[in-house]
Design brief:
alpha/beta; Aspartate Aminotransferase, domain 2; Aspartate Aminotransferase, domain 1; 7-stranded mixed sheet; 3-stranded antiparallel sheet; 14 helices; about 35% helix; globular; binds pyridoxal-5'-phosphate
Amino acid sequence: MTLRMTMPEQVATPEPLEPLIYELSVPGRVGVNLPVCDVPAAPLPADLLRDDLKLPEVSELQVVRHYLKLSQLNHAIDKGFYPLGSCTMKYNPKLNEDMARLPGFAALHPLHDTEGAQGALALMYELQRWLGEISGFEAVSLAPAAGAQGEFAGILMIRRYHLDRGDTQRTKILVPNSAHGTNPATVTMAGFEVVELPSDERGDVDMNALKQVCREQGSSIAGMMITVPSTLGLFEEHILDVIETVHNAGGLMYMDGANMNALMGIVKPGELGFDVMHYNLHKTFSTPHGGGGPGSGPVGVNAKLKPFLPGPVVDILEEASEPDESPLYGFVMPSKSIGRLKAFQGNFGMHVRAYAYIRIYGDSGIRDVSRHAVLNANYVRARLMDTYKIPYPRYCGHEFVIEARLDGAESIHALDISKRLMDYGIHPPTNYFPLIVPEALLIEPTETETKETLDEFIDVMKKIAVEARQTPELLHTAPHHAPVKRLDEVRAAKQLVLCCAPALPGAAD
Ligand SMILES: *Cc1c(COP(=O)(O)O)cnc(C)c1O
């Protein structure tokens, strides 16, 4: 059986989507069958009861269909290709889910005593070690709940490091202009000032600018945050020089590790000289993301920053007395910890999934993940090069950026191409980011896609370029089959009004 993405010859006439009906309730209809009460009935506290609690009265089948239909309104990696650059929307193996649902893990209370939670602690200890091994760092804390929180932890550690040495003059952090938005936000939230660095024509950090800033403002520089490969998908060619320059000025180096999918088993950031890095377990290590659910952004550090790690971290409290016994694991707070960032020990379910993923692949498998991710991205890039403008025409890491401007289709923008992709069942790439590329589309195919899927995506992209010139209206009015069309995306995120009633007056689409 071959499963293919839908690729309509031409989606010219919009077909209205069947509206989802929310009002399903019929008085008296029940979907549950409770057992006969076998305990004496007790009165409920009257002040907690409400008269106006209008619960829907529906059958079980109606509920199942309703939620299945709702879920089908969304795009998901389990449904189709999802080349959302910088987000590493790879397939999440179902085995990870099985492991996370094992009752011994899933039902473990976070306040369970240490002796009774040795299996979970051993898993966390091993995961800390493996993440350290993959990236070349001495110690890892699993506490942060997301990449951005890992960044925040890292910059607070850098701050604490300088203050601990009595160096109170360092108030600035360098950030290249290709950085992810969370980087300058983190710097600002941690109380530092952002010093933006330009990129050179190859997409790397402008070394002259960096050297000048370090010469002129060296004593006020606390460190630098840099993503490798950058969000242009490029491996920083002068990375050793960058690190040395900042270190010579007395600053520390933070690596945004969200793009580790390009590096695993190939480059260890700790060995390059980075002092601290965060991982996105929900990107690189295949724990589900994209729905706003729990993430995990552990931080790895070298010996300098180890005492400052956020806690708690898992350590061995007592070595095993016999060779075939296990040591006693427990939580400890590092000696000069920046403190807690998250209740209890972080998002443990994500730790289980990442552990299962690394364990299944092993070290050579992990290297293959990155090699295939890089190969897939370069394949798509090379095959789109004669159709779209690729502003940095060199080997990329796991993703690459297109400048979506087509000769002879001046009215077409990156957004139009993205929306049209939805008609073909493909999730749009990242739009208008990185900011330094006009009309940017950041494409990340990931290693989990087949060559057939990549070829179909390439064909669709080429077809859209033809449509852009011949029938631009088709792109301007896309998407034609989605439940919502073109939203005011800022308002949709910042002022989310969800309602099942007819649209509010004045509400967009
Ligand atoms: C995703 C991402 C982040 C932020 O990670 P979250 O887990 O979403 O907070 C930071 N930097 C880069 C380059 C990213 O792609």
